[in-house]
Amino acid sequence: MVRYFSNEYLYYVIKKFSRHQLMIASNPMS
Asked: What is the count of structural domains for the chain?
């Protein structure tokens, strides 16, 4: 469970966070 959490979930969070940061960078006014 821990390995799955630290592997799949972490990758998902990083990917989602990366996209979120990209949106902020693209829309600073938002």
From this structure: 1
